[in-house]
Amino acid sequence: MKYALKLLTIFVFSVLASGCAVDRAGLGRAPDPVSWSVVPRYFCPGDPVKVSWDFSSMRKDPRNCRPPNGGFTSLTACDNTAECQALAPGSVCQDRFCCRRELITAPGSLMCDSGSGCYPAFDITITADTLSLDPPVDSESAYVRGSRTVTPYNTTTFSIAGGYVTHPPYLFEDRKTVTMVRSAPPTSVTLTFPFVCTGATPGWRQYDFNSEPMATEHVRIAEVRNMSGGHTILVQRTGSDPLTVTTPVRLGPPTELLNGRVDGVWSAYLDPRERGLLNRPLCGPTEVRNPWPDLRIELIFECAAD
Q: Could you tell me the CA-to-CA distances from 97 to 72, 78, 274, 291 in Å, in that order?
C-alpha cells in the first residue's frame, strides 16, 4: 500500500508526454493496455536479452492533447503541408490533420491530434537487480514503444513500475525473470500443453518457439522427460526446413531424440491406444466436456560449446 501511494505521488508530478482460440478455462478479455516483455527467458553466458514495452493500446482521447486541436482553434483536416502553412507558418500536415511544428518537438507536449485523440500522459520506470539499463528507463514519458538490449551476467529479475492518467489513475507494477543456463544444478523448464477448444475442435495447445523464442541460440536441449503421470505421449516437433519428427516420450528414463536447438513448433498428443479408453471430449460454450488430461514434458537445457 505504501508503494502504491508513493508511486501515485511520483506519477502525479511526473513529466507529461505524448495497449479465435478459446481456452475454456476462462473467456477472452480485452488486451492489457500495458504490454512488456523480456526475451528470451533462458540464455547462456554472453548472450543478449531484449527488454521491450508497448503502451499503444492505451485509449486515445482528444482531451489528452496538449494543446488541443494541434495548436489551432479547431481541428483542421489536411491533404498536404501547404494547406497548414497557409494557417500558420511552419505548420505541418501530420496524420491528415494540421499541427503547429513547435508542438511536435516541444518538451512536455503530448502530441498533435490525429483525429482519434492523443494518448494519456504516462510514466514508466524499468530496473534490473544485476545490471543497469543503458540508457536507463527512468520516468520515461515520451514514447509509447521502446526497447533496450542488455547482456546479463547472471539470472536477472527486471521490474517495471508506472502508470497513466485516467479516472482513477491506472497504476501498475510487474516483474519478469530471465534465467542463465547452468549445468549444476541443471536448468530445466516444464512445458504444459493444456487441453482446450479452438472453435468447436478440442485438442492440445502448441508451443511455437519460432514466433515466441524461449531461449537464445546457444541454448541446447540435452534431455526430454515425460511429466504426464501414467500417460505415454507423442511429441511432434516441426522444424523450419520444414522437418516434422514425432517421438514417443514414455515414463522412465529421458529421451535424447528431441535434443538440439529450442526452436520449431512443438505439439503433444496422447498415445492413440490411451485415447481409445477415454470418453470423447466435446466443446461447450464455456467449457470442455469430458476433457482429456493436460500433458507435460520437462526440457533439460545446456549451453553449446563454442
A: 11, 5, 63, 54
Q: Which string of DSSP letters, residue by residue, matches 151-212?
A: --SS-EEEEEEEEE--SS-EEEEEEEEEEE--TTTTEEEEEEE-EEEETTEEEEPPEETTTS
Judged by average pLDDT, the poorest of 36-45, 95-104, 210-219 is 95-104
Q: List pLDDT tens digits, range 226-260.
A: 999 778 888 988 875 556 778 889 888 899 999 99
- What is the CATH architecture of 2-58+119-180? Sandwich (2.60)
The residues that bridge with 152 in the sheet, in sequence order, are none
Cell of 190: 516444464
Q: What is the CA radius of gyration of the chain?
A: 25
The residues spanned by each domain of the chain are 2-58+119-180, 62-105, 187-303
- Alpha carbon of 294 to those of 135, 205, 267, 269: distances in Å? 43, 9, 12, 9
Residue type at 77 in one-letter notation: A
Cα 298 to chain centroid distance, Å, stands at: 23
pLDDT in tens, 164-174: 877 667 888 99
Question: Does residue 49 sit in helix, strand or coil?
Answer: strand
Cross-strand bridge partners of residue 158 = 128, 176
pTM summary value: 0.75
